[in-house]
Task: structure prediction
Amino acid sequence: MGIRRAGRIIALQCLYQIDVAKKSFEEVKEFIHNYSLLNIIQEEKKESFLSKSKEFAEELVKIVVDNIEVIDKIIPNYLKNWKFERLLSIDRNILRLGIAELLYREDIPYKVTINESIELAKRFGDDKSGSFINGVLDHIVKSESVNYEILRKKLNAK
Result:
């Protein structure tokens, strides 16, 4: 498992806490700070691995928290026959995380974001989450690049 995948797992857990338990960003920052590597993977015991994963997780959570209104306005536009409020919390937060990476992180190719989001969905969602996440994020990439420069650059860098 890589540093960024571990960071995404931590970030997803934080976003879930914000969404379901109504925790604040400060409270989840504390969660990140106290996060044990044993929560992710037993084999990796390098402190630098954990600190870099935590740093990446905090950056992702901050992007989502700072842009939640924009992100949450985008998602319903790409749900077919489904309401935003009825999404599984885990799927909703995987989408938030993926959209944050797509629109606000220049250093992560869009295909990596989609693949990592699918992996999170397979690990934490239900049996349909992976294909659902893939479809929504793929549609967002194709449609929202006209509105977001970072995403447009990613598509043009193919």
